[in-house]
Amino acid sequence: MTTASQPAPNPEPLWQPGPDRIADAQVTRFQSWAAERYGAPAGTPGDPAASYAALHRWSVDELTTFWQALADWSGVRFGTPYDTVLADPAMPGARWFPGATLNYAEHALRAAEDPARAATPALLHVTEETGEDNAPEPVSWAELRRRVGSLAAELRRLGVRPGDRVSGYLPNIPHSVVALLATAAVGAVWTSCAPDFGARSVLDRFEQVEPVILFAVDGYRYGGKVHDRTETVAELRRELPTLRAVVHIPLLGTPAPDGALNWADLTAADTVPEFEQVPFDHPLWVLYSSGTTGLPKAIVQSQGGILVEHLKQLALHCDLGPDDRFFWYTSTGWMMWNFLVSGLLVGSTVVLYDGSPGYPDTAAQWRIAERTGATLFGTSAAYVMACRKADVHPGRDFDLSRVKCVATTGSPLPPDGFRWLHDAVGEDLWIASVSGGTDVCSCFAGAVPTLPVHIGELQAACLGTDLQAWDPNGKPVIGEVGELVVTNPMPSMPIRFWNDPDGDRYRESYFEMFPGVWRHGDWITISSRGTVVIHGRSDSTLTRQGVRMGSADIYEAVERLPEIRESLVIGLELPDGGYWMPLFVHLAEGAALDDALRAGIKRIIREQLSPRHVPDEVIEVPGIPHTLTGKRIEVPVKRLLQGTPLAKAVNPGSVDNIELLHFYEALARERKTQDRPA
User: Fold this and answer.
1) SS3 state of residue 643
2) H or E element: which one contains 307?
């Protein structure tokens, strides 16, 4: 199988860090330190690309030494020492730091122990209602530590023990951070859903793990509207028989329902937190896959694995430290919320925004970055492209002088997104497009503060991650599209899936195609200079006449057109051996899908991508369906178009607007009728 020709690499970088920035970067200091103490290659003066390439090579060739050095450099506190760094490197089932005990929450609250930092903000909370005259609400390190200590003691009083599951039906507010850290302090296992999830979606997740405690709000505000959730919470209480207690958080000011405990009562004491020392591989939290085609996978990650992986990502890759303010637009139903909370591990102030990404206008997130003094602002690629289409001018309209990095994830950032950030936000802006997954709650490739940024490319594979692109025969390729694989274990890989006692579902998810090697399910290209291009999911690849292309390439080209709000492309193998590739388009307000626009769409795909991937039909749709975390739904739509009934093609609770799927279901029926012989 061949691949569609790839755009020629951009020879000149869009941005590159200056000498001072390179010298001050934590990854530079780590490399010098590790060279002296652990035999890492010393940096090459004046050549940061060669320096990082050598450090990365060492980090995967000498995997155990790298992680030992990282734990040492980060000051990881082991309650009991480890016997060895990696007892068994086999995937799945790699065993990291056996014998060691520690606690994630203890590390997240270390800054509170510093008298000079205790009164400074650990959290900054922003809501839609925060007026122009009102500063974001700070929670100091000392206050955060006190609340966690009080709540952890109350959880123990309620009988919560290490390994018990504690759940949250909560928005992105300080209460959620306190509840997570208190749960971790006790050694219990955290799991959360955002309150925009309906009851069925929440139960599909929480019923699997059988929580003993539920933290729940009475409602939330989003897009300028109040959303009451009291009935949903009542249903969760009825349907979760393992609950011993429900804790009421009155965001809308309602009294606690009968039998529920008051949040304020559980967090009022002045209690020093007690941190349960748990084994390195003790569960920290359960995250969930989107669950579009069945029950969501309940992904279990460990206290120690998340601790060291996030210390690496946040310090060495994101270059975050005590002087930084870390803002990422997210909800508690997405792994980026967990990643955001881990900003506390490196002493950064974490910015929590509870509200709509585009209220009262498209520039909302830039306004928050300005008002909170964010130094790293993380968002979705979709938001960046929406700002570009709406002609937002962040650099002109807001004081973003403190923002040193804008990071994006959720989907590949198109080249036009890179250009827009550079032109509309700032020329001296580090643009970090990153890619990873809920499965590891981290990144495989993305931000490196010492490397240049090339348009449309992720800067490099992350340290300790042997990221490769493999052809169908399992051979690594450079400069060609291949399957994203990771050939060595990462500490944050799942320790297991919940309710998967034999590990069959875990193995099927990542290790079936290449036994012993993690196959993530994305198409990528790794360039000769080590940058990475993401092409989209390999399970929704478009293959015509032996030429394959990722759907993300189609979206990037088509959505440059101002008439196209969003698009969805599907490739269907037909029973007669043919291939049907429709492109569905959601039009911008006032646009019409006429012959001229259809021709323009086909021309841009033909000229910029491949003549073979010009769609057979361009079809207007009322909207594009997404998962609850905002990702386009491709595989379920493909199954609908193949004639699979809606109830079997998709889990309704996993979709943001199930009504949109009826269009594709009706289209499949219509095509079947047309194909029927007269």
Assistant:
1) coil
2) helix 303-311
388/659 Cα distance (integer angstroms): 28
Q: What is the rounded CA–CA span in Å between residue 308 and residue 34? A: 16
Query: For 37, which DSSP code?
Result: H
Q: Which residues pair with 534 in a beta bridge?
A: 524
**How far apart (Å, rounded) are the C-alpha atoms in residues 371 and 583?**
40
Q: What is the pLDDT of residues 84-111, one digit of tens each?
A: 999 989 999 999 999 999 999 999 999 9
The answer to whether residues 425 and 402 touch, using CB atoms and an 8 Å cutoff, is no
Q: Are 434 and 459 in contact (CB under 8 A)?
A: no
Cα-based distances in Å from 350 to 144, 162, 222, 324, 343? 12, 27, 21, 9, 6
Give the Cα separation of 224 and 573 in Å (integer): 45
Residue 352 dihedral angles phi and psi, to the nearest 5°: -110, 120
| CA distances to 2, 296, 410, 537, 583 from 632, in Å | 26, 16, 10, 11, 13
Tens-place pLDDT, residues 438-469: 999 999 999 999 999 999 999 999 999 999 99
* Concatenated DSSP letters of 448-506: -TTS-B-TT-B-EEPTT--EEEE-TTS-B-SSSEEEEEE-S--TTS-SEETT-TT-HHH
What's at 553, amino acid-wise? D
Contact 513, 118 (CB under 8 A): no
Residue 96 and residue 216: Cα distance in Å, rounded?
Answer: 34
339 SS3 class:
helix
